[in-house]
Write a structure and sequence with these properties.
By secondary structure, this protein is of the alpha/beta class. The chain is built from 8 helices and 13 strands. The strands form 4 sheets. Strands 2-1-3-6-7 form a 5-stranded parallel β-sheet, with helices on both faces. The chain has a 4-stranded antiparallel β-sheet with strand order 8-9-10-11, with helices on one face. Strands 4-5 form a two-stranded antiparallel sheet.
Length: 222
């Protein structure tokens, strides 16, 4: 399980972000003391840092610059200061990504996963669970009570995304962007075909109709 450190001076927001990450198969923590931030990050040694720009006594860009002198751990700037200049400075100091507040939680999760994928340490290798369904992306299978069913790449992508968004409606556009992140045109019917295949394979494991269609909204895992 990937460990993510939140450096955010709004502790209420930091707590909410920790809950979001913990629910999506990450191990999250946040700091409450903003002295010697770089030293604290090094001591915690996370797999990723979510770093705000507005911090007490120092700006996040300076923290990033100092941290880059001692570590290449991925850093995503998460901030309300989302001007082009802030993004330019952050990227020039070594940020791996930049996302402005307020953000859509699902979009933030996509940014996090995209960075892990880019550096070759995607959390997709971690086992995910829903009820007694065990999803193993690295093996491309789901297992229920010892019975395993193989999944295609797209079927695995659909279930991985729905597992990460348990209890939330996921739009068709979100799923299509996640599965086919390219400029290439993809027929909308292709997603429907893949969703139906996933449903059939879940039925093989004894789970009927757990992927609910919300008309005009998308899908939800219930």
């Amino acid at each position: 399980m990937k460990r993510i450190l939140i450096v955010e001076d709004n502790l209420e927001l930091a707590g909410e972000l920790k809950v979001l990450l913990d629910r999506n198969n990450y191990e999250a923590s946040y700091i409450t003391n903003f002295n010697n931030i770089v030293e604290q990050i090094q001591n915690i040694n996370p797999d990723m840092v979510l770093l705000d720009i507005n911090l007490p006594g120092i700006d996040g860009e300076s923290v990033l610059k100092q941290y880059r002198a001692v570590s290449d751990t991925p850093v995503i700037m998460v901030t309300s200061r989302n001007t082009d200049m802030d993004e330019l400075l952050s990227m020039s100091f070594g940020a791996d990504d930049f996302i402005g507040k307020p953000y859509n939680p699902s979009i933030l999760l996509l940014h996090i996963e995209a960075v892990f994928k880019r550096i070759g340490t995607s959390d997709n290798d971690d086992i995910m669970r829903y009820k007694d369904i065990v999803l193993e992306p690295s093996r491309g299978v789901i297992t229920v009570n010892g019975q395993s069913v193989e999944l295609t790449k797209n079927e695995m992508g659909i279930l991985s995304y729905l597992f990460r968004s348990q209890g939330k409606i996921v739009s068709r556009d979100e799923l299509m962007s996640y599965l086919w992140d390219s400029d290439e045109f993809v027929d909308d019917n292709t997603l429907t075909v893949n969703i139906n295949r996933v449903r059939r394979k879940l039925e093989e494991c004894g789970y009927n109709d757990i992927i609910k269609t919300k008309r005009g909204q998308g899908y939800i895992l219930e």
